[in-house]
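Encode chain A's predicted structure.
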Amino acid sequence: IAVAAKPTSWAALASSSTSSAPASSVVEPAPANGSTLDSPVHRHIGLRGIRNEGNTCFMNAPLQMLVSLKGLTSTVLAREPTPAELLRGAPQPFCSAFRSLLWQFQDGEDIFNNNTALSSLCRSAGVVSADTMYQQVLKHSEFRRARHEQHDAEELVTFILSRIDEELAAGETAPTTIEADEWNEAGSNNRIVAVTSVGFDGSGSQSAVADAMQGVHRSTLHIKGQKPRDTRQPFFVMPLEVQGPHITTLEQALDESCRLETLTDVTTAHSSTAAASKRMQLEYVPDVFLLQLKRVSYTTQGAVKLNKHVAFPDTLTISDKWLCKPAVPRFKGAEYALHAVIFHCGELHARGHYVCAIKTSKGWLEVSDSQLIAVAKDDVFKARSEAEGQAYMLCYQRVLPIVNDDKE
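Encoded structure for chain A:
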C-alpha cells in the first residue's frame, strides 16, 4: 500500500490544503450571493450558542466540539472547491454547510487573547442557527426520521466527518492509493499473517482531515492449526465498553477493549471446531482521538442506559497494551490532552439532552444549545448526576507530534 505523506500537526494539516487563497489571509464575511471561491482562508473563531430547532441537541453539542478544533475549521475553510472542480461535478454540500456555520462563529479579533474573563465572554456570546447542517443530515437515510426526532451524537460525529472527508478527498491532488485489499506480512516470530483491510474508501483517497482524525484498528484472529488473520479497519470514533463493575476509568475501558479474548468451538474451513482467540488493538492513533463510552446495556426488558461514572484523565498516556506490535515504537507513551467532553443528561438512552464542555485558554466552558457558562475544571471531571449528565464522548488531542507516523 502506497501512502501520501501525512502532515504531522494540525498546523501542517491546514497549510497543506490546496486552496487558491493564501494561508495567511484573513477571512472576510461571506459574500451576499453565497459565493466563497475568492474568500481568504482564516478568521478568528469565537463563542456562539446554537439554537435548538427541536430536539437538535444531539447535533448542537457535537458541532460545538468540531467547531472548537482549529485544525479542522482551518482546513475546511481553506479547502473550498475550485471553479474547475465545480464544473466537473465535485460539489461539497457538507463542507459548504459547515463553512456557513463557521462564518457565523467568526470574530474580527481573537477574543481569547485579551483580559476579558471567560464568564463575560459567555454572557456576551451570540446565538446562531445550524439548520443548514441539519438539512444536509436529514437528506441521508441514516437520519431520515421525523423532523424533530433525536438521534445519537456519536453516530452523527462519524457521519459528518466521513462526509467531510469524502468531499475534501475528491479534490486532493495526492491521494492515498490502495493497491490491494488482502496481503500477507510477517507477524511475531516471523509467522506469516494474512491481513485484510475493510471499510477503507474504495477510491483509495482520503483527505487531510482523515489523516489527522481517523484511527485504525487491527483485529487479530488466531485459530489453532491455521495462520493468524488480521483485519484492519478505520474509525473516527473508538467505541469502548464500560459495562461491569471492574471498569471505572477510561484506561480500564481501553484495557477491556484491547484484551485478548478466548473463543471456544470455532468452526474451521473443514467444518470442525477448534480453540481460538482474538484481540483488537490500535495500529494508528490519530492526532485527534475521539472516544465513545458505550452506555447502553441490553437486557430482557430492552435497552437500558448505564449512568455509572467513568473517570477520565486530563492527560491520557498511550499504553503498549492498547497497541499492536508494529505500532508500539511510534505511539507507546504518547500523551493526549483532553480538549472536550460531550455529556448525555437523563435516565433514558433514547431521550434526554446533550451538552458539551470545551477547554479554552481561559478555562473550561459548558455549552447547552444557546446557553454558554464558564465552569470549574472539577465540574467537568467529577462524578455527575443523571441531570448533570455522564460523559458519553471524549475528545483528546495529541500533545506532541510523533515523527514518521504514516498509517501504513
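Residues 45 and 106 are 5 Å apart (CA to CA).
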